[in-house]
């Protein structure tokens, strides 16, 4: 689990507009963006089954409601079950 924010106390801001969060291997594009003033949480889940498979869930919300959004999302993420075989 990773929390992301565009503004960190003491850090300088070098971009305006949407900021890509996850780069895609061998691609010029990115997946998921954050807007200034928003926060995001990434859940990176390794899927069992022998091959390299990963599920990424991104939750974004304004700073004012971010904690509420994460609180509402946690039971959903924790309810995932992966059956292999």
What does this structure look like?
With 85 residues, the protein is of the alpha+beta class. The protein is 15% helix and 38% strand. The chain has one helix and five strands; from the N terminus they run βββββα. The relative contact order is 0.19.
Labels describing this entry:
85 residues; alpha+beta; three-stranded antiparallel beta sheet; two-stranded antiparallel ribbon; 1 helix; flat
Task: Identify the overall geometry.
Answer: flat
State the major sheet: 3 strands, antiparallel
* Percent range of helical residues: 10-25%
Give the helix/strand class.
alpha+beta
How far apart are the first and last residues' alpha carbons, in Å?
Answer: 26 Å
Question: How would you summarize what this structure contains?
Answer:
The chain is an alpha+beta fold.
Fold topology:
Elements: E1 2-5, E2 19-23, E3 30-34, E4 38-46, E5 54-62, H1 66-78
């Amino acid at each position: 689990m990773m929390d992301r924010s565009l503004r960190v106390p003491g850090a300088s801001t070098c971009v305006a507009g949407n900021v890509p969060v996850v780069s895609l291997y061998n691609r010029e594009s990115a997946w998921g963006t954050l807007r200034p003033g928003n926060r995001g949480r990434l859940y990176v889940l390794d899927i069992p089954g022998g091959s390299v498979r990963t599920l990424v869930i991104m939750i974004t919300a304004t700073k004012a409601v971010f904690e509420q959004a994460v609180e509402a999302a946690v039971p959903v993420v924790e309810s995932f079950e992966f059956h292999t075989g």
